[in-house]
Amino acid sequence: MELVTLLATLVLGAWWVAVLDELALCCMAGRALTGRAVSRSALLPLRRTVAIWLQQTTRTEAPDWLNWRLAPALYLGLAAAGLALVPLSPGRVVADFEAGIVLWGAIEALTVVVVFLHGWSSNSQLPLMGGYRYVAIGLPAMLLSMFVLIAAALPAESLNVRAIVESQRDLWNVLRQPLGLPLFLLLGLSLTFRGPFDYADSTDLAAGGSAEDAGIVRLAWQTARLAMLVSFAAMASSVFLGGYLGPWLPGPAWLFLKTAAILMVLVALGHLLARPPSARMLTLLWVGLLPLSFIGLVSAGLEALP
Amino acid sequence: MSSLARFAAQAPVPLYAVVGDGSFDPVARLGVCEDVRFELSPRHASILLVCGAFRVADQMALKQLHDQLPHPRATFCWGCDSNLPMQHAEHLPICEDPLPGLRALYRALLTGERSSDAGLLPDQPPQPWEGRGDHGQGGEGMMGGAPYGRPMAMPDDDLRDGLQLDACTIRMGPYFPCWPPGLVLELTLQGDVVQQAQVLDAPYPPTEDAFSVTRRLGEVARLLFLLQLVPQAESVWRLACKKNPATPADVAALRRRLRRWGVFAAIAPTLGHLDAGTAEEMGLRCNGDGFSSIRTRLWQWLDEAEATASGSGGKPVLEHSQGAAASPHPIPHLADLLVGLEWHEARLVIASFDAMNLQRLASTGRVDSRQAPASEKGAD
After folding, report:
1. How many angstroms separate the CA of residue A194 from the nearest CA in chain B?
2. How many other CB atoms sit within 10 Å of the CB of residue B73?
3. How many CB pairs under 8 A join A and B?
4. Chain B residues closer than 8 Å to A28 by CB
5. Residues 324..353 of B with a Cβ closer than 8 Å to A: which?
6. What is the mean pLDDT of chain B?
7. Residue B168's pLDDT is what?
8. How far A290 CA lies from chain B's nearest CA (Å)?
9. Residue A51: its chain B contacts at CB < 8 A?
10. How far apart are CA B93 and CA A22, in angstroms?
């Protein structure tokens, strides 16, 4: 049952993000946001899915064909593994690991590997450049996440995600550690290379890592990107917004509502901020955001002292 | 399958636009339409939209682009000469609305009512690969250079920190999203850092309306697009293309939004540096520190758009001198401005010049940025 819920969450969540993206495009591009536009946005991801499905899957000269196909599958698998760590209610979680947060960290690290593999395997210059750039930005962005997640685990005195949720019965981590969620959201943009963190599949590289993707390979990669965002949002809502905790409604309903809200924030952030050149972003990460996340960790450590 | 195809055909038509000489405005107007979607890569498109006039030398690039579209694919020529290499393309005069034709063509492609375009070039490598080993990785001449016509990455000194990194020489242009149409660069990159640059072909010459509000706002939109602000770029294009011309209030509001989106914060203050003499020669404004940069050029475009919109002459705030001065200050070559920059920075620098200035920067001869022939570094 949990497994079915997990898969349904990934699929429905991916559709929800695609609809949010279309609506954000309508709002920010100055198009009229009418009822027709909303219903059009709801159907558009499905229409585009079929259209891409009907396209030929092209190939380049001498690609690493195995890894080119494997990369979307791995990325989707990592998204599913991440979501499996998120508890739906006190007794319902697909993978209840004692060191769940550490496993999530491994998923982040493997995402960097998979995105590079995707860029590299098509044997083409622009995708390779996207892969290089993603590694340069993805690594420090991942360090951000390590600090904020360790800080979130301190009040729970456990690395288990369910225990971290339970530790928020009195006060959500978003209030206890105000730096944590904003910094963690930046990691979400980096994991799915959106907006200011889109260094892999970006406009200046003519879609970068995805520039050579067509047909089913492209569909799988784009779906995996959306699924990873869903997985990330579910983890963020569990670690910082109390996950399934909440009055009146059943636990899973609270989790879905909070995940949907985080997704809306992520989609908005992805469309609202400019992406600086990578050297400037690296400076911001190493000189600004990483020290900030370390301050958050020290503060959480002092608060957790008996 | 047919009902699925009809369902999919109602999505915006995925186009890859090839913008030729003098076709900026019609393509920009089409780009803000909800029924089409300009794709970043030809691999993502179903229809190749070809618009404007093209040099004979660019026909091979057109053929290569055409063949990169996945099947089912078609070509739609809008306001083009009839001597283009696409034999089965749909043709439409520039004065007619292409939307109905594009929509019908997309539907016919998906439902199979129209056959997919055959390739224009043979689907085989220009030279056979003769490498040995399980993956063809070994054999003669495989250490750098261009074995069998393919540029191969090879360690070379890095400009910035002296590290030995793989250098690879590639060719960019003449058609690329938000790229000056016609411009062809040969770049030697290490990672995404430009080590050498050479201009192989200058962009198409600017049109007469190079200083119009539409064109100025179009240039702002191009920068936004490269900063990953895609919906915002569309909103600026929409402002540029709307029936009632943009007002000074529109431009002032845009200026505030650019700050809110972090556009100025994202661009380093000194990126695209030009000294005061060069800036004056090119009709560019300098900042308080006495140099011109991408930020100052963006600000100048907004000022010029605002001045033109307010009816104060319809000309730029600063006139382009176009080399008319008695002792003109030398203008650097475009290639020299790009060396040492990351690819993203290089694209921002290119996009920060209007068509007139870019033409001047790119037309001072085919000079290698390090004064060394590309062939010495193993270029193609």
Report:
1. 9
2. 22
3. 151
4. 231-232, 235
5. 342-345, 347-348
6. 83
7. 82
8. 18
9. 8-9, 11, 14, 46, 110
10. 32
Name the token pair of A292: 């900030």
- Cα angle vertex A216, ends B174, A264, to 5°? 85
| Gap from A85 CA to chain B (nearest CA, Å) | 32
State whether A30 and B238 contact (CB < 8 Å): yes
Closest partner residue to B228 among A29, A46, A274, by Cβ? A274
DSSP string, chain A: -HHHHHHHHHHHHHHHHHHHHHHHHHHHTT----HHHHHHHHHHHHHHHHHHHTS-----SS--HHHHHHHHHHHHHHHHHHHHTS-SBTTB-S---TTHHHHHHHHHHHHHHHHHHHHHHT--HHHHHHHHHHHHHHHHHHHHHHHHHHHHHTTTTSS-HHHHHHTTSSS-HHHHSTTHHHHHHHHHHHHTT-GGG--SS-TTTTTGGGTT--HHHHHHHHHHHHHHHHHHHHHHHHHHS-TT--SSS-HHHHHHHHHHHHHHHHHHHHHHS----HHHHHHIIIIIIHHHHHHHHHHHHHHH--
Residues of A in contact with B191 (CB under 8 A): 129, 132-133
Q: Does A129 touch chain B (CB under 8 A)?
A: yes
* Residue of chain A whose alpha carbon sits nearest to that of B153: A125
Q: Which tokens is B135 given?
A: 């993956």
Q: Is the pTM of this model over 0.95?
A: no
B253 touches chain A (CB under 8 A): no
pLDDT for the residue numbered B378: 35
CB contact under 8 A, A50 and B235: no
d(CA A200, CA A118): 10
Is the pLDDT at B325 greater than 50? The verdict is no
Confidence of residue B37 (pLDDT cuts 50, 70, 90): very high
Task: Please give the Cα distance from B217 to B305 (Å, whole number).
Answer: 7
> How far apart, in Å, are the Cα atoms of A103 and each of A91, A164, A168, A301?
20, 14, 21, 22
pLDDT digits (tens), chain A, 306 positions = 778 888 898 999 999 999 999 999 998 888 888 888 888 899 999 999 999 999 999 988 888 889 999 999 999 999 999 999 999 988 888 888 889 999 999 999 999 999 999 999 998 989 999 999 999 999 999 999 999 999 999 999 999 999 999 999 999 999 999 999 999 999 999 999 999 999 999 999 999 999 999 999 999 999 999 999 999 999 999 999 999 998 999 988 999 999 999 999 999 999 999 999 999 999 999 999 999 999 999 999 998 877
Cis amide bond preceding B174, omega within 30: yes
pLDDT grade, residue B319 (50/70/90)? very low
Chain A partners within 8 Å of B226 (Cβ): 203-204
